[in-house]
Amino acid sequence: xxxxxxxxxxxxxxxxxxxxxxxxxxxxxxxxATLDAIDPDLINRVERQIEYAVVxxxxxxxxxxxxxxxxxALHQWIYLFVLIFLGMVTFFGLVGAAGAQRWLDVGIPxxxxxxxxxxxxxxxxxxxxxxxEKFDRLSTVLKSLLYVGVPALFVxxxxxxxxxxxxxTTWAVMAWGAGLRVKHIALFAVIILLALPVLWVNMEPYQQxxxxxxxxxxxxxxxxxxxxxxxxxxxxxxxxxxxxxxGTQTQLRFLRVRHTDFIFSVIAHELGFVxxxxxxxxxxxxxxxxxxxxxxxxxxxxxxxxxxxxxxxFFQTFVSVGMNLNMLPVTxxxxxxxxxxxxxxxxxxxxxxxxxxxxxRRRALP
Length: 366
Known about the structure:
3 strands, single chain, globular, mainly alpha, 16 helices
């Protein structure tokens, strides 16, 4: 009993509290973005986000109580589950927009690729930990890349280019944490450049069009509509914005997909520069606390888990904000903890639970 009490005293309340603040921030912005909506799917977005948040918060405490090293011991079974889970989408998946087959209906719609992202962090983290002393060998590095390459291919074929890139960048960050050599990075850079033509040929037409629109906006003015409206929304927000639920761009429906892909534009439009910086600042605090836990982790596996979760949050934030500012192509990645999306929110809270499990079992402070 005393040991359990001492474990919970190491719970990172700053990390958890900041995460709650960002989730509440997101729920408020989703409410504004879907205010007076007549689409049944949009009407229930706030309630659905709250429901997923409650389940996710329970998951955080459950994972904190569970020793993360037990999950590491099950990494082979977790990896097998990911492959089966992603494979089920091919046969039983629901077809959504643009013909993408990414969802399963298990009473509630879930996106296996989202959940697989964080499960792969566990499996890859233990795999890299087992190879820690041999990571200076190219063969070991290539095996680890193949390890994530198979599930990444499943995700790419759904198709979901954004999540595929997230998985591969997570491998890169965790491999760097495991001791990836600079010479290997240079080799992979060359491989990526050579693989780009193959990747392009196998992309869906709408994915190719997004990249073409980004490089040459004049090629398809209609396809640039969402980006143009996002830029107008951000630019018109000024320092303090037009007011919560008062933005003309959002309330008059000029800005589309405002509850997911372009929610950062909603924030900048209604709450201005101050509101946008506040949102990014809170996400920055979350990343700072995760890296702190990584530094104090009791073993390499704990550190690698934290690096993987941090990459999920950082990369999605970077891409989401970048595409709202027209600095990156539109990929459909959500703004962590803020954009509407149950599977994404559950995945990220699962990741926070893993970090908290590492935190309560960390080394003593130096």
